[in-house]
Write a structure and sequence with these properties.
The longest helix is centred in the last third of the chain and has 24 residues. This protein is α/β, with parallel strands linked by helices. Strands 2-3-4-6-9-10-11-13 form an 8-stranded parallel beta barrel, surrounded by 8 helices. The N terminus and C terminus are likely disordered. The chain is built from 12 helices and 14 strands.
């Protein structure tokens, strides 16, 4: 059973990709892309969105290999946005260093830091940092447990004692600095692997789902997550679920599709883990239809899709991946403004009303 929420918070995230324009063959420089990301964060903060996430990638066609540094810069330019990764490739990070960085970010931002940890669909960081792909899941599992140990010991103000297999051993040492928040939020970012949903549930951690297809295929996985949480003794109904995916909105559906398609095509043909030779308009249009995973259309159409996602998954957070494929700054900014001023209020009116007639507190089978 999936509990309905009385409200949903909204945010944006980006991988900072450096897509080449399909007509000119040019792309933004990393410097310009980072400056634009900071300006978009300021816009999102002023518009009342709740979260900004930055993805971690280690290829020349992305500007964000060190999201923690960019988040620290954004912290000084914003007041309300919660700031996190989407996602940290935890398997190839040192959990101790990661915790120190986010504790520092938490202090700089007055308690607004979060971590969304995942295994990563992009695998270039494994050889880059000396890890083996055959340890893909085992690395994540052990490093996640170490990260939680660090987080919980910081909360309890105790030293860390840890015996590692794929990680270092820590013989009762202090970890500094301690974050401002008593318990630094750690989410688990997942794709479609059932074992990942089960693990997040067993650990009692919030779940963030990357919706690369429609929500229907994730319903049973969210049920598995909550069943695993309950079996481990956690309050499954209280665990937050977030969802997010590719997003663009414009005043009309046709305008949104016509504007966004060339950039979305560039993203698929250049920046995916396995780029495709050609991404056809027919596939793009099909994905934007009801039930599809691509949220591109007018504010009304996007609102309807977000309500479908909420009704299916019971999520309390939605993160829009913005600016894909070299979409110009002005178009991205307008899309964020429509998300904040039209879509977010419309969704929350319906959610608060019980999604067109159901009473608050009802559950979804």
């Amino acid at each position: 059973m999936i509990e309905r929420s009385m409200n949903m918070d909204f945010g944006i995230f980006t991988f900072g990709e450096l897509s080449r324009n399909t007509r000119t063959g040019t792309a933004l420089s990393p410097q310009q892309r980072l400056k634009e990301i900071i300006e978009l964060a300021k816009l999102a903060d002023q518009a009342g969105l709740a979260f900004l996430g930055l993805g971690e990638h280690h290829r020349r066609d992305f500007a964000l290999s060190a999201p923690e540094i960019v988040l620290a810069a954004i912290a000084r330019e914003t007041s309300h946005l919660r700031l996190g990764t989407a996602v940290t490739v935890l398997s190839t990070q040192d959990p101790v260093r990661l915790f120190e960085q986010f504790a520092t970010l938490d202090l700089i931002s007055d308690g607004r830091a979060e971590i969304i940890a995942g295994r990563g669909a992009f695998v270039e960081s494994y050889p880059l940092f000396g890890h083996k792909l055959e340890d893909y899941d085992a690395l994540f599992d052990e490093k996640l447990r170490l990260l939680l140990e660090l987080r919980d010991n910081a909360r309890d103000n105790t030293t860390v004692q840890w015996s590692g297999t794929l990680t270092q051993s820590i013989p009762g040492m202090d970890i500094a600095p301690r974050p401002m928040q008593q318990k630094l939020p750690v989410w688990v970012g997942v794709g479609g692997t059932p074992a990942s949903f089960s693990r997040a549930g067993r650990l009692g951690l919030p779940l963030f789902i990357a919706l690369l297809s429609g929500p229907a295929r994730f319903r049973h996985l969210v049920e598995l997550y909550r069943e695993s949480a309950a079996a481990a003794g956690h309050d499954a109904g209280a665990l937050p679920v977030g969802a997010g995916g590719h997003f663009y909105t414009a005043p009309t559906s046709q305008q949104a599709r016509d504007t966004f398609y060339p950039y979305y095509r560039a993203y698929f043909e250049q920046n995916m883990p396995r780029p495709v030779d050609h991404f056809p308009r027919s596939t793009f249009d099909a994905w934007t239809e009801p039930g599809g995973g691509l949220l591109v259309g007018s504010p009304q159409q996007v609102t309807e899709k977000l309500l479908e996602i909420h009704q299916t998954l019971g999520n309390t957070r939605y993160l829009a991946q913005i600016g894909l494929g070299g979409l110009p700054f002005a178009e991205t900014a307008r899309s964020i403004e429509l998300l904040a001023t039209e879509i977010m209020p419309a969704v929350n009116r319906e959610v608060s009303a019980g999604l067109a007639g159901s009473r608050p507190g009802e559950t979804l089978a």
